[in-house]
Amino acid sequence: MVDFVRGMKAGACAGVASGAISNIAVLVASIPSYYSYGVLVVSSIVGGAFYGIVLGLFFGLIFAAAYDKIPGDISSVKGVMFSVLFWLFFIFIPMIFLSSFTGTIGFSNILIIALLTFSLFGFFAGFFYDMFKPTKTYVQSQIPVRRCSACGRVIPSDSMICPYCGYKFKETVE
User: How does pLDDT run along the chain (174 residues), one tens digit per residue?
Assistant: First the structure.
């Protein structure tokens, strides 16, 4: 069964994490010219986190639906593989056909940065998808039990000999 809520949670968390990291990296690499650096940092991180949540919710839904079909056992690797396919179909191919500056250095830089950002996002999506895995709950056994009168451990009620201490019962308890 597909766990869409788990996928959405993972996507939103991945969006916040990768959005913040990517925006910090861009800010460190660029020189602000129009705004004070503090305002630029805060607005960029908050904007990136918001954009990451919105994109993450959408990505998380699709990731959850496709999770079992993606090859591999490690969720983070599945996330990177899925995000690269996502990048290919939603960034690379549209930019090739719709861009007016195909072939320029700026174009290839944008594609590489987008690929790295999507890969980081996919890694976090897989990581958080594992983090939100539901825990197993154990149902109490329906087998009737009793306590051994010698060692006090719980054993099946139809046991004639305690498997722990070897005490021999005279009769079974019903």
Answer: 688 999 999 999 998 888 777 776 666 666 555 455 555 566 666 776 777 788 889 989 999 999 999 988 899 999 999 999 988 888 788 777 776 655 565 667 777 878 888 899 899 999 999 999 886 554 556 778 888 888 888 888 888 899 889 999 887 555
Burial 74-94 (b: 16+ CB within 10 A, else e): ebbebbbbbbeebbeeebeee
Domain ranges within the chain, ordered by starting residue? 4-131, 141-174
3-state helix, strand, coil in the chain (%, to 5): 65, 5, 30
Measure the CA–CA gap between 70 and 79, rounded to whole angstroms. Answer: 9
Q: How many CA atoms lie within 13 A of 86 on its CB side?
A: 26
> 129 with 67: CB under 8 angstroms?
yes
